[in-house]
Amino acid sequence: MRFLEKHKVQLGLMQALDNTNVTGKYFDLRKFRCVTVILVVLAMAATKTAKIELVQDKDGDGGDVKAITGAEKTITANTSVIKATVTLATFLVAGTITINGLTFTADAATTTVADREFSIAGSDTQDGDELVTCINDATYGVPGVTASNDAGAVTLVASDGYSVTVSSSPDDGTCVKATVEAIAAVDIRMEDLDTPNGFYFVAPKITTTATATAVAAIMIEDEAYYEPVSQATPNTIL
User: How far is the C-alpha of 52 from the C-alpha of 35, rounded, in Å?
Assistant: First the structure.
């Protein structure tokens, strides 16, 4: 059986947000046993967050909205994300960049991959190249993470099954870290809703402290009592 023959895929929310929150569309779950919601977030500066929570309502108009216990997840920038950037701007000698628990130290003159030391003797672009050499090394680099450099802006991309967590010392303008892509997921079953009091509709609510970011919430309704018709049809998902 194909995925879309037993799951209903819906777009719950997609828009730009600027340090605020928004609630997406309400979906009637009376013909399903559970739903998973995937949050996609782009462009968050260090320390910023994005939270996905599911809320319930009686008839889908938001007039009786209330929380669903435990149905929330928070993404913190640069922590377990899919893609992040580290931008070097005259990074300091003995400064450190830690990626997934592995620490890379800036050296005044020499790159020594086995010691996870990268030279900052050149321009920001050259320094970024040296850092990338260390990160991508098969033995001493970061497993599951691939790095590339563009004028000192080092992009870290997680492979399937991995994520990226990055920090630095000093944590200042000499090493600016930012999230490019991140995802989180939350799921519930019908018994998590207040169905005895008529709450059958569910919507995603996204709250972010980031500025000028883009978010999307994809609803996947599962264990249907019938063969569902998705917004995403077999012709639009390959």
Answer: 14
Round to whole Å and give the CA distance between 177 and 171.
Answer: 9
Q: Express each pLDDT in 57-114 by its tens digit.
A: 999 999 999 999 999 999 999 999 999 999 999 999 999 999 999 999 999 999 999 9
Q: For domain 3-75+181-224, is the CATH number 2.60.120.380?
A: yes
List, by residue range, all CATH 2.60.120.380 domains of the chain: 3-75+181-224
Spatial distance between the Cα atoms of 71 and 204, rounded to a whole number of angstroms: 10
Q: Is 168 left (phi over 0), alpha (psi -120 to 50) or beta?
A: beta
- Strand pairing class (83-88; 153-158): antiparallel
Query: How many Å apart are CA 56 and CA 73, to the nearest integer?
Result: 16
State how far the Cα of 196 lies from the Cα of 191, in Å rounded to an integer.
10
Q: Give the CA diameter of the chain.
A: 69
Separation CA 210–CA 193 (nearest Å): 30
Name the stretches of the chain with pLDDT < 70: 1, 224-238
